[in-house]
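ok so i was messing around last nite and threw this chain in just to see what happens. nothing serious, just curious
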Amino acid sequence: MNRRLLLTRIVQGFTITGFGFLAYPFIRAFVSTFAEDVSFDIDISDLSQGESKTISWLGRNLYVIRRSTEITEMLAVSNEALKDPFSKDSKQPDFAHNVYRSIRPDIFIAYKNCTHLGCEVSSRPNRLDVGFECPCHSSHFDPSGRVHRDAVALFNLEVPDYQYISRNLIRLIRS
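result:
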């Protein structure tokens, strides 16, 4: 085998390999069997009233909170001190367009990232007026993740898409 033929075959091999790497994302987008299942199940049976836990999903942290009856009753009353009390401008699934911003009034799930610059908010479970607080610029959110009118953040905390599999099992869904 001469040198020119060998180099031609090497270049052809690299060309075919490069084409394969280039075509793979397009083929993957059109073939549904390549779709990844990125759902995640959360067991909430261990949460009692007023408790929360942090879950890591898709590279972001979420709060899962079982609200107390005092907080659910307080949320039912309209609050004028909020920028977006009915969550019309905030990113959330359709089921969360209510004062609780959740399917069930006692369970609340939201990403921990502030909508201003993405800092992780901290939970304030013992306060009725402030449910979450951003340590970076002191934005305050109510227990439903709705931003207070005087806060720097413009939007409410982001609520992920989820569904109940059973009474104590929630499945997070990538939307």
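not much to say yet. Residues 3-34 form one domain.
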